[in-house]
Amino acid sequence: MKRKSFAEMNCSIARALEEIGEWWSLLIVRECTQGSVRFDEFQNRLGIARNILTARLERLIELGVIERFALDDQPKVGGYRLTPKGEALYPVLIALMQWGDRWTACGKKPPTLLVNDATGAPVQAIVVRDESGAPLSFRDVRFLPGPGATSTTPSFIEGRNQRVLGHK
Q1: pTM of the entire structure?
Q2: φ/ψ (deg, to 5) at 130
Q3: Shortest CA distance to 105 belongs to which of 113, 29, 23?
Q4: How do residues 141-156 score in pLDDT, each as one tens digit?
């Protein structure tokens, strides 16, 4: 069964999921942030089949999320690393990790703690904040049409704001 494509949806979340929403893709990106660069490192750490890993790596390269590079110790062997587009996924990974720590960790005990390398201070939870730094929930945020809005976007936004906020 082929999954539905989100490529034509005028929704940034849907389009992001079209590119990196398949679970192996995000786990490969996670591995890049943990220092994996070689094919065999990805395969061993993830327990992923070679053909699936090859396909995911090629797709992530095609999308500009990762790139190949020559390894210093073996110039004929390519490694993989994040591009700036891939590095921009780091807050997404941390938000997912923090959500998982809170809601899915065995015994509510996170397997890994994150601290600032320079200070040793714990990394703060990723939170949507207003201009003064106060946390916001989805109930506090009003949507407005953006520059990429289509003709149907304003009515969608109006309905969303009415349902969630009780006003336009």
Answers
A1: 0.88
A2: -85, -175
A3: 113
A4: 999 999 999 999 999 9
